[in-house]
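Summarise this fold before class:
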Amino acid sequence: MDKQDIKKLTKKKLIFEVIKERKRNKEKDQIIHDRLESKKRLHDLRLQLDKEKNITKELRLKLSQQEAIANQAQNMSAKLQKIANENKCYICKLKYEVTGGHRAVSIKCGHLFGEKCILDHLKRSKACPICKSLTSYKDVRFIIAGQNLCTAELLI
């Protein structure tokens, strides 16, 4: 082998080594590129997760507000039902009339009844149908514009 052949062989070997190094570098570059892409995707996913957490927090807050409103509505409905029941005669369960025999009247304990119903009841019993306190027809008071008026004189 002469010097020329050795040079060619060395040159070929060197070229082969350079090609191998480039190939390794290309693989390393691809790994680095993949890692950078993964990092970017991870960052994007974290941002998306943060957004989702904020949305979830807002939705939970809205849900708790809606639950509070629903509870208030339920309480209000119960109060309205109680008022509606209170605006009915305890004896016959009918609503009071503005005029006529079923006007709202109270007795000394403060309970309300339809006029005819309580007068009929007091003929049979001298006790309030609700609290059983003693009462008489003289204790019957008309409810007019939110005021109790003595009606004992009117009943005699």
Notes: Confidence is low (pLDDT under 50) at residues 152-156.
